[in-house]
Structures are given as structure tokens and as C-alpha cells.
Amino acid sequence: xxxxxxxxxxxxxxxxxxxxxxxxxxxxxxxxxxxxxxxxxxxxxxxxxxxxxxxxxxxxxxxxxxxxxxxxxxxxxxxxxxxxxxxxxxxxxxxxxxxxxxxxxxxxxxxxxxxxxxxxxxxxxxxxxxxxxxxxxxxxxxxxxxxxxxxxxxxxxxxxxxxxxxxxxxxxxxxxxxxxxxxxxxxxxxxxxxxxxxxxxxxxxxxxxxxxxxxxxxxxxxxxxxxxxxxxxxxxxxxxxxxxxxxxxxxxxxxxxxxxxxxxxxxxxxxxxxxxxxxxxxxxxxxxxxxxxxxxxxxxxxxxxxxxxxxxxxxxxxxxxxxxxxxxxxx
Length: 331
Known about the structure:
Helix content is about 35%, strand content about 10%. By secondary structure, it is α/β, with parallel strands linked by helices. The chain has one domain: Glycosidases (TIM Barrel, Alpha-Beta Barrel). The strands form three sheets. Strands 1-4-5-6-7 form a five-stranded parallel beta sheet, sandwiched between helices. It has a two-stranded antiparallel sheet with strand order 2-3. A hairpin with a 2-residue loop joins strand 2 (about 45) and strand 3. The longest helix is centred in the middle third of the chain and has 18 residues, at about 200-215.
């Protein structure tokens, strides 16, 4: 099968060298918290122009998410997202992986340090950059230096970057894996040459195979930051039903192993992402359709499928042992 051929990568001996950071808080969170990737619904970025998120909308978004999720993964510590930790703590979220979009921005790096120090019981990790190397935004030495800077300022907080899975296997810089306190890869079947929207099982097989390879490659905690199928556009073969089936299968089949988890990608649809991604990755209209909620906040079928699994007590890797919806916050 093409998926097996694609994954026939050279596996080196497990890298067990420990960084100076002890990411045990993150490991516990991976085993007990449902994480969702979150970008505020009123944030907008097109042609480099940022319309910042508002604290009011962030609170509305997180009130909606809190019934199903206990953890958040963000992509930036600027653009209004500085308000996320305080609101998340107030609403009872239990873990936050704090994003830093621009590793060259001392202002954003300083914001991440300030927020992690202000909410030490909430911020369990910092993710510096998102597909920065894939997009060619910055060099590895620069990204690595930003990671070192944060690690020195935030002892006890796990620090990593996030790139496609093959950077962690055999496609990254020579010291890429060693520099991560935990692995935060994206594993997107959609971008593989064999991908067909109708073959949901093959897509799930691919994610599970990658997860297994990553476990063989490293003893560090693994949190798959991005995966899934978009719910549109229909003209390209995507649908809400196929998105729901992907997540149903993945969560039913993901092994129950300590230190292995998946982030639900992503909370809301963002129509602006189609145009925003064009300069770096070309025309990808599916970028507007990854959410479990539409942009107006209405839930998609995938969320209903997941709630059924969560109520049955699916293992922590996908459902979190204590992760039943909180009726105090509703849906």
C-alpha cells in the first residue's frame, strides 16, 4: 500500500537524552486532559495585517468549548491572545500549551514568559513556531535560539516547536529531535500523495502508523498537534460526514498509552485562513473548514460523534479519563 511505502522511513535508535526541562506536568496533562487547538473567532490575518482578537469574544469562544475540552493549544501570544490564559483559568480549563508564532519577536517571546509565569498551574508547555521550517519563514538556528531563550527563562515548562511528522523521523535538521522537550507534530493525511477523501480508514491508518513510528523514535511525550479531515469544500470531496467518521475511527483506535495524545484540530472554522495560506502553500480552500464548530459557533457532526465516545469513557489519549462534559458550562 502507498501508505506503508510512504512510512517506510529509516528508524534510528531511540533518542533518550533528556533536556534540562522536566516535562512531567505536560505528561500528566496529555494523560488526563482533552486538548483543542484554538484560534479566536474574531481574529483575522490577511496579507500580514492582523485584526486582533477581543477578550469579549475569547470568553464567548471558551465558554462554548469548555463543555467538551479541558485544555487549549494556541498559536500565538500576541494579537489579543494575551487574554487567553486569564479567561481560561477563570473558566476552569486545566492545561494550556501556549503558542509563539514569531520566534524573532522579542515582544511575543516576552509575553509568553510573562503569561507562563503568571499562570504556572495552567501553562504546561510553550510551542515556539508552527510549521516555521516547512514554510521557510526562519532558519533552524534562529528557531532553536528562541527555544533556548524560553527554556532558560521558564524552567519547568516544556518547550518545543511544531513541524510535520517527517521532521521528527528523518527529515529535520540533525539535532531537531534532541532540542524538543516533547514532540508536537502535525500528521495530515490530506497532504500525502496517495490521499483520497473517500478513504477515511486509510487516512486513520496513516495517523496511527506515524504515531507508532514516533514512539519508536523517541521516549519523549507526544502530542499530535494537527490531524483530521476538513468538512469542506464539497467540490473537493470533503464533507462533514467524512470529517466525523475520521475522528470516530481515530478515537476508537488510538492506543491507550501514557504520554501519547492528540489535539482536536481545530475548534472553529476560519474563512480567512484560505487566503492567508496562499502565499506560503498555494490555494487550499479546505483551510477554511477544519473546525469542530462552524465560524458562527454551530457544532458539526464530528462533535456529536466524539461526545458519544467520550460518554463511553474512551481512553485518555483521545478522551481524558475525567473528561465528561461539564454541565455547568453547557455546549
